[in-house]
Structures are given as structure tokens and as C-alpha cells.
Amino acid sequence: MExxxxxxxxxGTLAVDHQHVSPMTIAALNxxxxxxxxxxxxxxxxxxxxxxxxxxxxxxAGVIGANGAVYDFAGERVHHLLGADALKAVNSVTTEHGxxxxxxxxxxxxxxxxxxxxxxxxxxxxxPSGLTVGVKQVGNLTNLLKHEHEITNGIVISPRDAEGLQxxxxxxxxxxxxxxxxSNHDNMELIPRGIDKATAINELQQLTGIPxxxxxxxxxxxxDIGMMKQAGVSVAMGNAVDxxxxxxKYETASNTEDGIAKFLNNYLQ
Length: 269
Prior knowledge:
This protein is α/β, with parallel strands linked by helices.
């Protein structure tokens, strides 16, 4: 069989509980790589948090992090940045609506104002034990902009103010300074303009020479729809939202039922 590009989202797809990959799924992905296929995780997580999940599968696994703003290829790391104008806009809009924004480099989290405890707790869910991510309060916009050369993406988490989150997204969409997405109903993901998981996959298809018809993508959330459209073989998890299932060409079992392994073991036979 000709080589395929296999790409999986992490949360709700590859991981069973945000921090662990099942033995069956690890075995299936390693068998695929043994047979010449290439595997990448693709996530909104910052690079360091994505890398530790990829390494659970294999040190051969590649990383597409920050919703496509950073990815691995041939031992190099490719970056796209949010930029100063986007950072200024997010700071202004979230301050107006009383929301907390977090900004990510490969291995640091930056924020301007101390977030509510429940927001910080929601962010910490994705930090595996044994990995220390730098979390730095910079205090104001001026200090935040000192890190514009390393900030690839960000997230606004608002579990208790859906209206403020929706209005913030509408305000930022009007400015058209970045790409906005969501992995859940209570967040807004901040991505460099013109960038998403799909653009990273397209770049990898060009670099590897593996076309869309031999690209397999697994996902469950709204921010996976773009990359599914970039793949000839798009697979929704059983736990995926309806919008993802409508776009996907196939559906498999849920993330807690080894959906990835079950699909690959059948499809790659």
C-alpha cells in the first residue's frame, strides 16, 4: 500500500481522558508507521503539550500544534505567529467583556490579568503530570507585546459567560485580524490569520508528496472540520459533534472505545 498521511486530533479523539492514549491505539498507529505511513497529532494545544501526547505513541510521531500555527517536518519546526495587531485587538475586546485570554508560545503561557480560579482550572486539565509549562502573568499589553515574536496562538475560556464569549468572537471577526475557531462551546481559539489545521496539512501534503486522497484525518470538534475537508479520508469519532459527522466521509467508534485503532486496522488492511 502506498504511504498515507495519518492525522488525529488529540482531545476527544486520540486521548481517552486528555492525558493518555490507549495501548490498542498506540499499537495500531505504530503498526501503520512500521508499514511506511506517516503520523501526526493535530491540536489546538501549545507545542509542548502536543508533543508529550505524540511521544506517548512514538518518537516518530509528528506534531501539528497551535491549530496549525506550528508543526514539525524533517527535524525542523515551522512557526506562524499571531502578530501585534491581533494581540492588541484580543486584549481590548476581552478586557471590554471581562474575559480571560491566554497566549501560547511553544512552551509558555502568557496572560495579562489574573483569571478566575475556575478558568485557570479548565486550562490545567490539559497539562499532563511530569510536564511543567511556564505560566507567566505579564500584567499589561506592553509587556505582552514583548513576546509577540514567539506567540503562535491563544484561547479565551469562558465557562460561565456564553454571551460575552459570543460577543467577543463577533467583535474580533469584524476586525479580520486572525482566524477564530472553537474546540468546545465554552472557548474561542485565536489562530494566525489564514492559518488552521487544514493549512498545516496542506503544507505537509506538499512537503511529503502524499496527496489528499491518501490523507486520513480523525476528529471530533468544530476546529477539526477544516482539516477534514483537506483529507480524502475524513473520519468522525463516535463522540463527535453532529457538524463534524455531517462533513466526515466515515464514522468510527468513540475515543474511549479505540475508534482510531478500529478504523485503521480495517482500512489499512
